Every structure is written in structure tokens, then in C-alpha cells.
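Can anyone check this?
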Amino acid sequence: MADEFDAEESKLVSERNLASQAKGLLDNPMLVEAFAGLRSNYENAWRAAKVTDLDGMQQIKIALVILDQVEGHLKHAVKTGTLADTQLAIIQRTREAQDGPATESAWYDREMEPGERA
């Protein structure tokens, strides 16, 4: 059973770490500005495109879809990490119920809540 938890925990910790990186990107003012600027430029180009320029409009649409997909991928990683954090907490509680309280080192492996002391 410990091997099951260890393999699952490794995957969940990886997902949590990816979520942290994705959140950092989504919160990065430069990236937020880049997404907004690109979206605005593409939407303006779409509005300015001639109705007969189907190829141009298609290229703009593709660019908007890709922009949405990149942003969606990052948001999905954040949600996955949040779920992974919840699952890690469940595993920790299950382990404590089976083996007693966690060792001190296990507490250093998780992120601390605001105001929490080491």
C-alpha cells in the first residue's frame, strides 16, 4: 500500500509543482499584458479585415484559438494542482490514521499556509 501511495504522491507532487509554475505565469504582469495585447490586436485585425479576406480572417481566428488554448492549458494546470493538493492531504490523513502522526520532515514537503509557523 505504501508503494501505491508513493507512486501516486510523486505524480501529485509533480502536478502541484506544475500548478505553482502555471499560477506564477498567469499572475505575471508581463504575460497578462502580452495575452491582453495579443487578444486586442487580433480582435482589432478581425474587425478591420475585409469581408472578402477569408484567408486573413481564418488566420486571425486561428491565432485567437491558439491564444485561448495556451491560457486554458495554464488554467487547467492550476486546477489540476489544486486537486492534487487535496489528494495529497487525503493521503497524509490516511497515512496518519494508519501509522500515527507524520514525521516532522513530511511537514516540510508541503507548502505552508499564510501565518503558519515552521
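Reply from J.R.: I decoded it. The chain has four helices and no strands.
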